[in-house]
Amino acid sequence: GNTGTGNSALATNSSGTNNSAFGAGALATIGSGNDNTALGYLAGIHDAGGNNLTDLTSGIYVGSNTKASANGNTGEIVIGTNTTGMGSNSVILGNPASNLKTILTGKVGVMTPDPKSALQVNGGVQVANDTDTASADKVGTIRYRADSNNSYVEMCVQTGAATYAWVVIHQETW
Questions:
Q1: 31: which strand partners?
Q2: Cβ(64)–Cβ(78) below 8 Å
Q3: In sequence order, which residues have a C-beta less than 8 Å from that of residue 128 and are 6 or more positions away?
Q4: Which residue, of 32, 105, 119, 168, has the fewest CB within 10 Å?
Q5: 21: which DSSP letter?
């Protein structure tokens, strides 16, 4: 069965099953989706373009006006007011436009079930350019950048009592 609490929650559901919606308008436009959960005002009713969603599967939408990236998504988890999902089988925490800080306590493992460090990754890590000026807030940051004939791997380090710089760890020239 379905459970809806709040004005118009699950209002147009005609054939979907095992949906839970809590909040005015939550999952209100879903007609045939299954196994979804929405918590918050208008949670899970629009896609990224503002179109009504009619079919989602196994999605979780937590926060006022959380949106799926597209109709028909499966396994999308969206957490944070006014946050839009990233597609099927993805998780987004917080609206990137809000400069929200996501703080995880404990140890975080990516592709590993038992991390031994604050962050342990089993696989490659892709690093992109960080255009910020070297500063105390950036110490320890690693970045990759390239120009017309060179690529660089750099790290921000403290170079004096109150000075900081991006230091080249490795450079390739072609």
A1: none
A2: no
A3: 143, 144
A4: 105
A5: E
39-86 tens-digit pLDDT: 999 999 999 999 999 999 999 999 999 999 999 999 999 999 999 999
pLDDT tens per residue, range 79-119: 999 999 999 999 999 887 877 777 888 999 999 999 999 99
Q: Against a cut of 0.90, is the pTM above it?
A: no
The whole-angstrom separation of Cα 164 and Cα 129 is: 17
Q: Tell the residue number behind the tokens 């490795």, with chain if given.
A: 170
CA distances from 72 to 33, 108, 162 (A): 8, 30, 53
Are 155 and 140 within 8 A, CB to CB?
Answer: yes
Report the greatest alpha carbon distance in the chain.
Answer: 67
